[in-house]
């Protein structure tokens, strides 16, 4: 029998239950994917806990945006996909499962050289980093201040910003500074005195800032150091962006992504998959859990100190 993680009420990780779910066949335009790895994102536990508002729960609720697996059945009218194809599944809301029926529009081909865990680690973090850097017009010669450089979004943002020709000053705890250096960033410890440490690391100043940490410190230091506040963005404090006078994409923002921003997010997935398959883009996997232990994965993610990505393995 297929299995999935479901919950019936908002709450702590203990509300997550590993349950049998009915067999489902793909309908027109859909495929059935046997899941090999699932990406855990902070939005998953924010929705589960109620930290991010959602509609009242009336039937068992599923979760998870990102997965990778093999197509095992194809519905009517699906062009370009066949049984046996290895795929990345993105932009869904029920990824924590052993099998998934998904619309073919959610699929990206997984290069054979790309592992399952890395493939499942791509969609939300990499597409977010890619779109936000493009929207902030991060380019050649820019000095980017990145808050939260060692997380999944942060590691993607460092690599993509370096490819765009920027210098990256990234914050993380001391223990993760070597990792930031490996990815091409100048590491700086967050905490009191941050602005002075950034000034020392970037004596010519910073041009643009991206907040992937969601702290008051990140916003205050960005506003102090970046002259043009239109070049400060957050992906965490979206609901406060207008009051703070900075830009935001999702992260609780009342302003939806534009079609162009959504298109950028979609474009990032095959691009990152190709780069990673060639060894030109790294996806660090911090922790792996069996799917049935999703609650433990959430406890880990909620510490706020995961270096890289958590994946679930069915
Ligand atoms: N708006 C969107 O579309 C969107 C999309 C994706 C993610 N997000 C949000 O963006 C955030 C990051 O996502 P993620 O997947 O990268 O999360 P994550 O992997 O859980 O990020 C954890 C990282 O945050 C760092 N961190 C913790 N406290 C910090 C602080 N005070 N200052 C700077 N860094 C700190 C940690 O570094 P140390 O361990 O070194 O302390 C750790 O590496 C989450 O809040 C997520 O919900 C938003």
Write the H/E string, N to C.
EEEHEEEEHHEHEHEHEHEHEHEHE
Name of the level-1 CATH class of the largest domain: Alpha Beta
Rg over C-alpha atoms, rounded to the nearest angstrom: 19 Å
Number of domains: 2
Q: What percent strand?
A: 15-25%
State the CATH topology of the largest domain. Answer: Quinone Oxidoreductase, Chain A, domain 1
Name the average pLDDT: 98
* Main sheet specs: 7 strands, mixed
Bound molecules: NADP nicotinamide-adenine-dinucleotide phosphate
Shape: globular
Task: Name the structural class.
Answer: alpha/beta
List low-confidence stretches.
none
The separation of the N and C termini measures 12 Å
- CATH architectural category of the largest domain: Alpha-Beta Complex
How many DSSP E strands? 15
- Share of helical residues: 25-40%
The CATH superfamily of the largest domain turns out to be Medium-chain alcohol dehydrogenases, catalytic domain
The DSSP helix count reads: 10
Note down, in words, how this protein is organized.
This protein has 314 residues and is α/β, with parallel strands linked by helices. It has 2 domains: 3-121 and 283-313, Medium-chain alcohol dehydrogenases, catalytic domain (Quinone Oxidoreductase, Chain A, domain 1, Alpha-Beta Complex); 125-248, NAD(P)-binding Rossmann-like Domain (Rossmann fold), CATH 3.40.50.720. Helices cover 30% and strands 23% of the residues. It is built from 10 helices and 15 strands. Strands 3, 4, 5, 6, 7, 14 and 15 form a 7-stranded mixed sheet that branches. It has a 6-stranded parallel sheet with strand order 10-9-8-11-12-13, with helices on both faces. Helix 3 packs across helix 9 (259-277). The longest helix has 19 residues, at 259-277. The radius of gyration is 19 Å and the shape is globular. The mean pLDDT is 98. The protein binds NADP nicotinamide-adenine-dinucleotide phosphate (NAP). NADP nicotinamide-adenine-dinucleotide phosphate is lined by residues 41-43, 124-125, 128, 147-148, 150-154, 171-173, 176, 190, 212-215, 235-236, 249-251, 301, 304-307.
